[in-house]
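S.,

As promised, the N-[2-(1H-imidazol-4-yl)ethyl]acetamide run. Input:
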Amino acid sequence: MGRLVKFLLLLAVVSACGGASEKSTARKEQPVVAAQVVEPAVVVPIFDADSAYSYIAAQVSFGPRVPNSTGHVKCGNYLVSKLRSYGAEVVTQDVNLKAYNGDILRARNIIAQFQPENPVRVLLCAHWDTRPWADTDPNPANRYKPLPGANDGGSGVGVLIEIARQLSQVPTKVGVDIILFDAEDYGLHENDSHLWNKHRHSWALGSQHWAINPHKAGYSARYGILLDIVGAPGSRFCHEGYSTHFANNIINKVWSRAEALGYSSYFVNEEGGTVTDDHYYINSVLGIPCIDIINCDPESPNGFGPHHHTMRDDMEWIDPLTLKAVGQTVLTVIYNEK
Ligand code: AHN
Ligand code: ZN
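Predicted complex:
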């Protein structure tokens, strides 16, 4: 019950109990009481997990999206046309990037801008390339083969394409940029892990390029949210180390929305590992506070789930319930932004 309503009830009770002398003040003109301020309701669209699932399946159907492969080129074109179909102003950065092993990658960052003229912006991002090597696969014969990349690559992008579809129907108050980074996953092979110090910047090549050369000079955003490995059944999103270091208020903003929506079993309040992912360069180079929503599974070989960087990272590892928890939470966050 509102405070004003309680006050009026109290007044009513007091005057009802009043004696004859008080009765003389009743039924007269009363002083104006300040009106109650009611916030206008915020409309948050309903995230459709089956649509997101279908966008992941579409990516996987192109085959591995390893830079320089035909699956990569075809999937990139699909993502650009999908984002344009939802009314975004899309630009791409087509650039050759050198991987740590000397490979020259024909990489493509895809930047979809909603309300490009709006000065207040929120950045949503994911990587769209897939890893050339299943170097965590239990079978050594697979460790130089490309993996399907349903969860690692496909899932974050699938959620963002569905968010783009919702943005095409209901505008946010802030401008939104959806950036799909390339060449995130061409980093140091497990067999070369002793070379970590030399090659600690071998991951996230596309986002490193964009952070140094943003699509607009002086680009900034209020904050960023990176989605990586967000599709597995029973996923647990911990507070990733760089996210708490650079953007703890954004962690709290997102995790409290998730809790209010009933998604606390996914968005757990536990400390996770520290991951050199795309958000690291957004934070450290551009100074935009950016969090990483990423599955954490300390029991698994590299901490991201048993399927991670194996040939098993296929559609079997995608659960619409997890996509819904992530997608609805992110939608609720951005539609509440004033
Ligand atoms: C490291 O493994 C150090 N960084 C990359 C995190 C990652 C890989 N995300 C997806 N694939
Ligand atoms: Zn990966």
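Residues 241-260 form the longest helix (20 residues). Residues 152, 185, 187, 203, 228-229, 275-277 surround N-[2-(1H-imidazol-4-yl)ethyl]acetamide (ligand 1) (CB under 6 Å).

- D.
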